[in-house]
Amino acid sequence: MFDRHFFADRRTALGLSVEALADEMLVAPSTIRRWESGETCPSLRMLVLVSRHLCTPLLSLISDEDTEDRRKAQAVADLLYEQAQEAA
Predict the structure, then answer these.
(1) Angle at 59 between CA 5 and CA 31, to 5 degrees
(2) How far apart are the C-alpha atoms of 85 and 77, rounded to whole Å?
(3) 38: phi > 0 → left, psi -120 to 50 → alpha, else beta; which?
């Protein structure tokens, strides 16, 4: 199941507007809004792209349970993102 709340929280945590993320992913802003509202869900192919653009594990986007594994995966993703930002 697509976790639309985590998706929206992660997007805003990275400082990305709906429009900015849509531009990066080459989709219409309305697509992002429909995902966040729960009207539609991204395809598996799009989930992989979302995972890359939001620098988060794919598992965190498809699970709505707050599990220990999810928290660990997110912590690793956050560290990798921070290191990439420092190197840039």
Answers:
(1) 45
(2) 12
(3) left
